[in-house]
Amino acid sequence: MSCSNKILFVDDEETVLSGFQLTLGRSFEICVSSSVTEALEMFKEQGPFAVLVSDFQMPVMNGAEFLQKIREMDKEVVTMLLTGAANFENVSETVHRGQIFRLLGKPCSAEKMKEHIEAALRQYELIRAEKDMLEQTLNGAVRAMTSILAASKPLFFGRAQRVKDVAFKLADLLNVDDPWRLELAATFSYLGHVGLPDSIQEDVYKQNNLPSEVKEIMAGFPSFISGLLGGIPRLNDIPEIIRFMDADYNAQEVDKLGIRKLASILRFSQQYDHYASEGRSNAKIREILSSSQEKYLPGIIGAFTKAFNISADGDYVDMVDPKLLVEGMEITQDLRLPDKTLIAPKGTLVEEHFMRILDNYYATYDENPFPDAIQVLVRKKKD
Question: Alpha helices of the chain — where are they, by DSSP H?
Fold first, then answer.
């Protein structure tokens, strides 16, 4: 969510904060904090913020140090520092290095502060516009590259597309809003596979036992990808995501940039696609992955269950060619002829008599009278 007029003021003097709220509250969405500790929590929980204005002289850490921590959390927020005349020389170097948008003298009138904030908001919009343009350009380039590679290496780059689609579903349900990095990491994670000899590509794809020399080559893929992407702006996180795709998720480890979360979602999605390509049902895949769910981001099994409509007892919804219906399935949509004649209502249980009826229709019509696929509930067999 982008809040283009959301401003956070941080100052240990309550009267200063009250003054800003009173004089600027009608023009901007103002949030205030009287301590850097509280402000850091507020920034995490109530962000994003477009502009952050901090006093320099504060307990715990000074304003320049505080804004540096903020910049580590969010490189887009525009920061400004309030300071008295005695501190100007101490902080001017920080401004010159480009880490702070403006250095403001204290006290600062409401009229002047309003002008500074308006300038900071314009700067924020420029940063956002530049980021959006760059992301669109990169996404277009990545999709074009993926299409070309999928034609030459369909095994791996077809999987990359499927992994991305699954990862998007899971990320949405897990409230991980980062489709740009997910797509890039899903695609580039297979870039090293382009150089694999044709003779071993199928074994790698199926995760068969591989010779030690092949495993050694594949272990170097993250470094290879890092070398390719290292000089491209805004892509420095992608090799890190790919590197962590081989690691178990640890909720105790610091993950400021969400790299480990994204890596875990992609790892799970890769494993799903591997088992799906073996012809296993979604219910069976859930059973397999649930046995090692401690390796993944908490909540991912539940998200997977919801994303693929797998019921709690192992039943799941699937799309099936009517010719391939088997006894025990339950139709979850009306089955009709092309003229809309109802043949079987939603909830019909597939049994021998019903299958004979379908066979009669297929024999009567020159062309297929039914949809290519209908939605059914596949019930897990009870032991």
Answer: 14-24, 36-46, 63-73, 88-96, 110-152, 154-173, 179-188, 198-205, 212-219, 221-229, 237-244, 259-277, 282-290, 300-307, 352-364
Helix axes 237-244, 259-277, angle to 10 degrees: 50
Would you say 230 and 211 are in contact if contact means Cβ atoms under 8 Å apart? no
Assess contact for 160 and 146: CB atoms under 8 A.
yes
Domain boundaries, the chain: 6-126, 153-307, 316-378
What contacts 104, CB < 8 A, 6 or more positions away? 53, 80, 81, 82, 83, 112, 113, 116
How many CB atoms are located within 10 Å of the residue 220 CB?
10
pLDDT in the model for residue 111: 92
Domain 153-307: CATH superfamily, name plus number: Hypothetical protein af1432 (1.10.3210.10)
Cα separation of 81 and 101, whole Å?
8
* Amino acid of residue 9: F
**Same fold for the domain at 6-126 and the one at 153-307?**
no
Yes or no: say if 300 and 268 are a contact pair by the CB < 8 Å rule: yes
Residue pair 297/174 in contact by the 8 Å Cβ criterion: yes
Report d(CA 269, CA 130) in Å as an integer. Answer: 31
- Give residue-wise pLDDT tens across range 24-57: 998 999 999 999 999 999 998 888 899 999 998 8
**Angle made by CA atoms 9, 13, 15, in degrees to the nearest 5:** 90
Going by DSSP bridges, is the β-strand pair 29-33/6-10 parallel, antiparallel, or unpaired? parallel
Beta bridge partners of 80: 53, 102
Q: Which of 25-39, 88-102, 357-371 has the lowest mean pLDDT?
A: 88-102
Give the angle 159-161-165 at the CA atoms, nearest 5°. Answer: 115
Which 3 state secondary structure label does DSSP give 316?
Answer: strand
Q: Which CATH architecture has domain 6-126?
A: 3-Layer(aba) Sandwich (3.40)
Backbone angles phi, psi at 9, to 5 degrees: -105, 135
User: Whole-angstrom Cα distance, residue 361 to residue 342?
Assistant: 13
